Amino acid sequence: MQFRTQIPISKSNNPIDYNSKVLSIGSCFAENMADKFDYFKFQNVINPFGIIFNPVSIEKLFRRVCELDFYQEKDVFFHNERWHSYEVHSDLSNSDRQELLETLNKAITETNKKLKEATHIIITYGTSWIYKNLEREEIVANCHKVPQKQFSKELLSAEVIQKSIQNTIDLIQTLNPDINFIFTVSPVRHIKDGFVENQLSKSHLFTALHQVLKTHNSQLITHNYFPSYEIMMDELRDYRFYTEDMLHPNQIAIDYIWKLFSENYVSEGSFLIMKEVDEIQKSLRHRSFNPDSDQHQKFLAKLQQKINLLKEKLPHITF
After folding, report:
1. pTM for the predicted model, two decimal places
2. DSSP letters of 209-221?
3. Which of 69, 195, 298, 308 could form a Cys-Cys staple with 64, CB 3.0–4.6 A?
4. How far apart are CA 121 and CA 23, in angstroms?
């Protein structure tokens, strides 16, 4: 007997392997998946501009990156003793304006280079709700705790999102026509917007994204869309799979979603190396009761030998 429904997932025609170069952009769930790529030592870059939730802000960043449109003094502002940009996450904010501009422009240059080299790009959309700065009349990626009266809150229509996603694809393909796209919608519910409002927000993302994929090629829907939201809402429809806030997937859920992702989007030839990496990672975390013992020294020597053998096959891997 089956006690749960399982989401059917089609295998990618262009799976990720240890020679692939992956760029991941988007919501906090994108970071959950990127942590897995990092753990298994794939070549992965995650959110060079910090966590970004909405499609328009993601498009704006790719426009800057692809056109090498560097930040200027007019693009940053001072608030609460720090300099910020409305286009990026507050993790990049700085007490020194020049340092912030240098950080942002270095991120543009490096991401441009990484995007040209990337074999795969994973984009995770989080919400259709946006905040628009009233003075600048522009959609922001982060409000940086600026008073709410300086913003209007709006729900992006499916049509606007569809155009924004298409613009993002066009920009990226101009720089790298051979890149493989993987899209997903974050399973994290934005309940601060409201329960009904969150569902409406996600539905706009689904409608727009699938419409874009449908216009490209019917195969893209099955091969370039990973159903992380659907897995969380259907296969893992129990609060034991959530963190204490009852909104974010916990480690068990993240591990399960990663398992399904890797089975369908990572090449079978990479599984043995992933197993080797996993064994090394677990060994590195081992803490001996007697670090100076001969037994532990032999353990360390054997571990180093495993690392050296793996590095001979894949020089880019470091522990």
Report:
1. 0.94
2. HHHHHHHH-HHHH
3. 69
4. 5
| Mean per-residue pLDDT of the chain | 94
* Distances in whole angstroms, Cα of residue 93 to Cα of each of 22, 25, 62, 80, 145: 25, 19, 19, 11, 12
Residues 6+ apart with CB under 8 A from 155: 128, 129, 130, 197, 200, 201, 204
Q: Where are the domains of the chain?
A: 21-266, 269-319
Give the residue-averaged pLDDT of 11-25: 95
What's the fold here for domain 21-266?
Rossmann fold (3.40.50)
In this structure, the dihedral spanned by the alpha carbons of residues 194, 197, 198 and 204, taken in order and rounded to 10 degrees, is: -170
Q: What pLDDT is recorded for position 221?
A: 45
d(CA 5, CA 234) in angstroms, rounded, equals 7
Instruction: Give the number of other CB atoms < 10 A from CB of residue 104.
Output: 22
| H runs (alpha helix) in 1-50 | 28-39
pLDDT of residue 223: 55
Helix (H) or strand (E) holding 311: helix 294-313
Give helix 55-67 / helix 158-175 axis angle, nearest 10°: 20
Residue 107, SS3?
Answer: helix
- pLDDT score recorded for residue 29: 87
The pLDDT value given to residue 176: 95
